[in-house]
């Protein structure tokens, strides 16, 4: 169930400080209207009047918040990195907004929030909200997603979904998406799109992602992939030792595979993402 907005805000503000000892700026709770109901999101905004570049950041299958109802460390960490680069960061809560919990262990045919449908709708609603804000640089809005959120990014940047009324997204980054479906559908991108994945990822499929990008090059020169040798799923997550998923793990993690930080891949991805979104 979704917690009351005031309680969520109190919990988020109690989240641990950033690694350098300085807290993140206070996030704002944002309610974004859309046809299926209100989309709730967290907004991290730089100080000043702007206009600022903005990034829509899409959580993975575990949801936006952790078990303790704090924003998950990965997303808080990336909010810090993106803020340091001068970006506003909007994190839509695709599951909590629909009063749903994690979807990692839900069979695809039973999922109520699909990457190619509901989450793309969330992306469109988030962009429409951002372009109406006077402090946003309307022609400099990027996309970043992880896992299921990364798969939603791949669907959202396809040429079949062009933006005609507003400036399109400037660029997009997808961390370890599931490329198996897209690779068989002749995927390509209408905006510069970067896929980042570990070579040892046994949850997503590095081979399918490489096949997807190689196929897209014949239709679009806008897609790139980086495959990190020796890295696994969640390689960019801070302070998360590599481990195999336990059978009795909660619903916020997949049923099998390996998860864990890869310091070299994490550091490289931070630089690449900053450069890619700044283009």
Notes on the protein architecture:
There is one protein chain. With 279 residues, this protein is of the alpha/beta class. Helices cover 27% and strands 21% of the residues. It is built from seven helices and ten strands. Strands 1-2-4-3-5-6-7-8 form an eight-stranded mixed β-sheet, sandwiched between helices. The protein has a two-stranded antiparallel ribbon with strand order 9-10. Strand 7, helix 6 and strand 8 form a beta-alpha-beta unit. The chain starts with a helix and ends with a helix. The N terminus is likely disordered.
What fraction, in percent, of the residue positions are helical? 25-40%
Please report the distance between the alpha carbons of the first and last residues.
39 Å
Mean pLDDT: 87
Overall 3D geometry? Answer: globular
Helix-strand pattern, N to C?
Answer: HEEEHEHEHEHEHEEEH
Low-confidence stretches: 1-21
- Give the structural class: alpha/beta
The number of distinct helices, counting runs of at least 4 residues, comes to 7
Q: What is the CA-atom radius of gyration, in angstroms?
A: 17 Å
Total strand segments: 10
The percentage of residues in β strands lies in 15-25%
Strand line-up across the major sheet: 1-2-4-3-5-6-7-8
Main beta sheet: strand number and arrangement? 8 strands, mixed
């Amino acid at each position: 169930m979704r917690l009351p907005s005031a309680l969520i805000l109190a919990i988020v503000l109690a989240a641990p400080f950033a690694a350098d000892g300085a807290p993140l700026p206070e996030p704002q709770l944002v309610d974004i209207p859309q046809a299926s109901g209100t989309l709730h999101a967290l907004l991290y905004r730089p100080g000043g009047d702007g206009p600022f570049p903005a990034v829509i950041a899409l959580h993975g299958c575990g949801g936006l918040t952790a078990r303790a109802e704090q924003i998950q460390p990965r997303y808080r960490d990336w909010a810090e990195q993106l803020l340091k680069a001068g970006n506003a960061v909007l994190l839509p809560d695709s599951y909590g907004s629909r009063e749903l919990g994690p979807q990692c262990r839900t069979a695809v045919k039973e999922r109520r929030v699909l990457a190619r449908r509901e989450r793309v709708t969330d992306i469109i609603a988030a962009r429409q909200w951002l372009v109406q804000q006077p402090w946003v640089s309307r022609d400099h809005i990027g996309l970043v997603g992880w896992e299921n959120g990364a798969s939603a990014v791949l669907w959202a940047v396809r040429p079949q979904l062009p933006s005609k009324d507003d400036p399109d997204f400037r660029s997009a980054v997808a961390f370890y998406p599931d490329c198996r479906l897209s690779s068989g559908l002749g995927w390509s991108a209408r905006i510069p799109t970067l896929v980042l994945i570990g070579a040892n990822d046994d949850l997503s499929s590095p081979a399918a992602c490489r096949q997807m990008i190689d196929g897209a090059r014949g239709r679009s020169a806008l897609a790139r992939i980086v495959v990190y040798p020796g890295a696994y799923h969640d390689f960019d997550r801070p302070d998360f030792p590599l481990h195999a998923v336990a059978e009795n793990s909660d619903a916020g993690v997949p049923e099998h595979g390996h998860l864990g930080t890869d310091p070299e891949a994490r550091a490289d991805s931070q630089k690449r993402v900053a450069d890619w979104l700044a283009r």
